[in-house]
Amino acid sequence: CPLSGSPVPQVTSRKYPRLKEGDDVLGGAAAWENVDSTAEPCPKCEHPRAYFMQIQTRSADEPMTTFYKCCNPQCGHRWRD
């Protein structure tokens, strides 16, 4: 056998990096302060209006991603289109 010495030890644990929260990526809570609202119903509470912002998340030849936040302060559900 050409190899000598002890074999490579097995991996016993893994550390995964902490993922950023969605708010961190979108600019935090301050990003929603001066946004417009539209007649988009909330899929969670069915409130008739939602705040929205558009961000270019992919390459320039792809359409912008629209992020929504429910206008109902008790709900605050967020989704994207």
Automatic annotation (TrEMBL):
Any Gene Ontology biological process: termination of RNA polymerase III transcription
Residues covered by the TFIIS-type domain: 38-80
UniProt keyword list: DNA-directed RNA polymerase, Metal-binding, Nucleus, Transcription, Zinc, Zinc-finger
UniProt binding sites for Zn(2+): C42, C45, C70, C75
Transcription listed as a keyword: yes
Primary location class: nucleus
One annotated Gene Ontology cellular component of this protein: RNA polymerase III complex
Record-level Gene Ontology MF annotations: DNA-directed RNA polymerase activity; nucleic acid binding; zinc ion binding
A Pfam family reported for this protein in Swiss-Prot or TrEMBL: Zn_ribbon_TFIIS
Subcellular location: Nucleus
Quaternary structure, from the entry: Component of the RNA polymerase III complex consisting of 17 subunits: a ten-subunit horseshoe-shaped catalytic core composed of POLR3A/RPC1, POLR3B/RPC2, POLR1C/RPAC1, POLR1D/RPAC2, POLR3K/RPC10, POLR2E/RPABC1, POLR2F/RPABC2, POLR2H/RPABC3, POLR2K/RPABC4 and POLR2L/RPABC5; a mobile stalk composed of two subunits POLR3H/RPC8 and CRCP/RPC9, protruding from the core and functioning primarily in transcription initiation; and additional subunits homologous to general transcription factors of the RNA polymerase II machinery, POLR3C/RPC3-POLR3F/RPC6-POLR3G/RPC7 heterotrimer required for transcription initiation and POLR3D/RPC4-POLR3E/RPC5 heterodimer involved in both transcription initiation and termination.
Function comment: Core component of RNA polymerase III (Pol III) which synthesizes small non-coding RNAs using the four ribonucleoside triphosphates as substrates. Can mediate Pol I proofreading of the nascent RNA transcript. Anchors into the Pol III active site to constantly monitor transcription fidelity, cleaves mis-incorporated 5'-ribonucleotides and restarts the transcription process. Once Pol III reaches the poly(dT) termination signal, can induce Pol III clamp opening and transcription termination.
Family: Belongs to the archaeal RpoM/eukaryotic RPA12/RPB9/RPC11 RNA polymerase family.
Name of the protein in its database record: DNA-directed RNA polymerase III subunit RPC10
UniProt gene name: Polr3k
